[in-house]
Amino acid sequence: MRIIDAHVHLYPPEVGPDPAGWAVAQGEPHWAELCTRRRRDGRPVQTFPTAEQLLRQMDGEQVEKAVLLGWYWEKPATCAWQNRFFADCRKAHPDRFAIFATFHPAAGAAAVRDEIRWARDAGFCGLGELSPHSQHCPVDDPVLAMALELAGEFGLPVNLHVSDPQGKKYPGRAETPLDDFRRLARPFRRTTFILAHWGGGLALLETNPDVRNDLANVVYDTAASPLVCDAQIWRKALDVVPMEKVMFGSDYPLVLYPKTESEPGWRGVLAEIDRAGLSAAEKTQLLAGNAARLLGL
Ligand SMILES: [Zn+2]
User: Fold this and answer.
1) What span, in angstroms and rounded, lies between the C-alpha atoms of 229 and 215?
2) Which H or E run includes 181?
3) How far does residue 167's CA lie from ligand 1's centre (Å)?
């Protein structure tokens, strides 16, 4: 079966040898707190593979394409740096990588507009992963609003990080009130929003007609699902959310089963999906069809 992972993180090779030191030098403490964390047993929450290592692992586990998502950096310069790196990744492997551009509203309206225009022309197919809550930016920020409007005009879906308000507390966790995403999505009807991590549980509230109406231009990805939900989520969510609104994403290179695995990868989560009782049509759409359609892959 064809597999497109719609939520993959990748960093330039200079980050890998000493991610925490890199973050200090770069002035990105929030990323360091989240991504260089260790679990209680001392093992890191994630690894830092290079593009070549990622491709080799995709080959080994039959993942056809990875959608590379930027990070919600605290500095505009780090956003621009990662975007340039992604443009090079796509140039080198246009058949394997699709790319999303990131930005920080603090760069100002003109710079953000220029960066999004540049990204569209450079073949990016979306924006994100953004997190206004982690980027210290109000959800009604005027530069953010301009960017979301422009994303709709350019046909670039916007991936937003959402934490489940009921979820585990961990160092660096940002609170992301679910109502904020209704407020974000409602005014920008031309823009498609991808709410990461099952929308922090918002997906399961789509039985409420008012919520469903507010979220008409919202789809969900399943990033880090095994870390935030038990295996019932696949069937339950697809009973509530129309099947064309859910895209498979892993949050690679996060380790998804830290109790039993110490490396990132897809085998465990794909096996979990296999056991979830989805129809062949649901699996086809979830694992590749929806991403291919929504991102024009
Ligand atoms: Zn996220």
Assistant:
1) 21
2) helix 178-185
3) 13
Tokens standing for 31? 């990323």
Check which CATH number belongs to the domain holding 145 and give it. 3.20.20.140
**How many separate domains does the chain show?**
1
Is residue 231's pLDDT more than 90? yes
Identify the pLDDT of residue 217.
Answer: 98
Domain limits at 291?
Answer: 4-295
Contact assessment for residue 82 and residue 10, using Cβ atoms and an 8 Å cutoff = no
Residue-wise pLDDT tens digits, 107-135: 999 999 999 999 999 999 999 999 999 99
Q: What separation in Å is there between the alpha carbon of 17 and the centre of ligand 1?
A: 23
One-letter identity of residue 266: W
pTM comes to 0.97
Binned at pLDDT 50, 70 and 90, residue 172 comes out as confident
| Residues with C-beta atoms within 5 A of ion ligand 1 | 161, 196
CA distance 121 to 109: 18
Residue 69 clears pLDDT 90, i.e. is over it? yes
Q: How far is the CA of 177 from the centre of ligand 1 (A)?
A: 14
Closest CA to 15 of 50, 67, 39: 50
* Residue 21 Cα to ligand 1 middle (Å): 22
d(CA 225, CA 208) in angstroms, rounded, equals 23
Residue 221 contacts residue 5 (beta carbons within 8 Å): no
